[in-house]
Amino acid sequence: MKCATVLAALTLSSQVSNVVSQLILPNLFNRRSDSVDFAAHRQKPIMNIPNSALPPSSDKSTSSGGAGDVTISDVIGNARIINIFAGFTRDIDTISKRLDDNTQNTTVLAPLNSEIQKLPRKPWEDPEDYKTLGANAYDGKDGEDRAHRNLRRFVEAHIIPVSPWKEGEKVESLGGGKFWWESKGDRKTVRSRLVGSLD
Fold this sequence. Notes:
The chain is an alpha+beta fold.
């Protein structure tokens, strides 16, 4: 299924460590193979930052300089169209530390606020929890822990521990889903095979 969400990618390079990070904005909420069309709405990038680029297809990790100590968490924290997801990343310590670390190559597949708001339930809710535990599934300390685990799983599904990310290269998110991207003309499409689906 093609999604109408536009993707923007920001490449941030650390002058010191030559680590490259990317921020990509898709809709990745379905539990089956999916794709996202980068050019669906011809929307402009979320920010006019030097070194803006779509995911690089070369296998050389080079620093283009100029980004200094800017981290992914700095960028997503200032991007209003993804601030809901940015807030989620701050709630998960391991992800927050990773996005603050200039020594780890990372690609973030950040869903737009509008896509998160369209979800049939909150990212920390799981229908199985309601089925098993009823309407009070997220009450009390156990409920909070359950919600936090679900939110962590949601965020980890959007974090790819690779950058640069070559076209056609299948990579696994921290949540276990497999992702790759393809280009055809001026269109770039991110495809996925999420956890539990057949290869």
